[in-house]
Amino acid sequence: MDLLSKIRNVPNFPKPGIQFKDITSLLQDDGAYNHVIGLLADRYRGAGLTKVVGIESRGFIFGAALAHALGIGFVPVRKQGKLPSDCISRSYELEYGEATIELHTDALGKSDRVVIIDDLLATGGTLEASAALVRQTGATVYEIWVLIELAFLPGRAKLKGYDVHAEIVVDSE
Ligand code: AMP
């Protein structure tokens, strides 16, 4: 299936110059969304994963469905101030300013082996901070999965040392 054709490109959102990859057009397509979840389940069935980690918020849509398909638990990484219990947190640079993400302290431990899921890899800051949080708990990052990689940005270089899989690689803006 040509998944890229299912993703709507929205120019100048949320600000001038950004080509926003809108996955809602893929999600609302019965065949395409199910196809992606099938790819995920086929890829990670038998990998010995104990949890799926999803990044707020679009990582939840793919990560939760994968956790269900594999019959294992789902762990959210969320923006600061959203998780109610004790958290570990990490800040990282955005194009303008800084962002902080959090993980419940007791969500993962040494015996866990996880895949981290997000919709899109751009500069890699979000995934790098998420992977660092996961490793801080003692858990093993088996792989990082994204639906779309913007390969003209240095995201993959930022994630050196991790295995990264992208279903769709976009080479130019
Ligand atoms: P980054 O930390 O730069 O890799 O940014 C990744 C996060 O920002 C992902 O969670 C994406 O949802 C979002 N994002 C960044 N750039 C885009 C884009 N061009 N289109 C859609 N989402 C984007």
How do the helices and strands line up, and which of them pair or pack?
Layout: E1 8-11, E2 19-22, H1 24-27, H2 30-44, E3 51-55, H3 58-70, E4 73-79, E5 87-93, E6 98-104, E7 113-121, H4 125-136, E8 140-150, H5 155-158, E9 164-170
Parallel strand pairs: 3-4, 3-7, 7-8, 8-9
Antiparallel strand pairs: 1-2, 4-6, 5-6
Helix pairs in contact: 2-3
Distance between the termini: 22 Å
Q: How many helices?
A: 5
Radius of gyration: 16 Å
Count of beta strands:
9
Q: Give the overall form.
A: globular
Main beta sheet, described?
Answer: 7 strands, mixed
- The chain-level mean pLDDT equals 97
Order of helices and strands: EEHHEHEEEEHEHE
- What would you call the structural class? alpha/beta
Structural notes for this entry:
The chain has helices at residues 24-27, 30-44, 58-70, 125-136, 155-158; strands at residues 8-11, 19-22, 51-55, 73-79, 87-93, 98-104, 113-121, 140-150, 164-170. The chain is of the alpha/beta class. Helix 2 crosses helix 3. Strand 5 and strand 6 form a beta hairpin. 28% of the residues lie in helices and 35% in strands. The mean pLDDT is 97. The strands form 2 sheets. A 7-stranded mixed sheet has the order 5-6-4-3-7-8-9, with helices on both faces. Strands 1-2 form a two-stranded antiparallel sheet. The longest helix has 15 residues, at 30-44. The radius of gyration is 16 Å and the shape is globular. Bound molecules: adenosine monophosphate. The site of adenosine monophosphate has 15 residues, from strand 2, strand 7 and helix 4. Adenosine monophosphate is lined by residues 18-21, 58, 118-126, 155.
